[in-house]
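Morning, I've got a small favour to ask if you have a moment. Here's the protein in full, and shout if anything looks odd to you:
***
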Amino acid sequence: MDRNVEIITDNKGKKLVCINDIRFKGKRSVDWDDVKGYLEEYVGQFYQITSSEDIIYIGNKLPDEYTGSKYTRGLKGAAAKAKANAAQGIPELIEIATDKHFKENHGDKHQWNARYGWYRYNSRFALPVFSEDGILERYNVFHASLLIRHDNNGKMYLYDVIDIKKETSNPLES
């Protein structure tokens, strides 16, 4: 898996994942099948959240949910491209995640595979912005929530990355 990703600290001392390449691009829309294929390379891996020491597994449901959820289908333009390209930084997004919040499972759909509820963590990433002639101008910084399901087997699985919002006050200069 070819990745150009690093964890950096911004001028406020907060960590963020700097994704240096735009792998998923297009004039009109994202090819979610390409993103799904990319995410399938993570299946079977696991990563540790530094702040909580929780181990987060990447299960075989992530590629489908990440690329086909109601949230993803509703994304347009820059937000869709941000989510698609955030897939490159999944391990690092998990590593720097903070602010763990628990929510009971109330839906019938996930009574078995989210038996012990859901967790949300906050994470941040930056994507490069290039000029017309391919020169790096700056990085746009985004907030994201990692949605984690606590399975009946006791393991925690990354389910989706949602609530992606551009941080308008924090662009990183190149």
The mean pLDDT is 90.
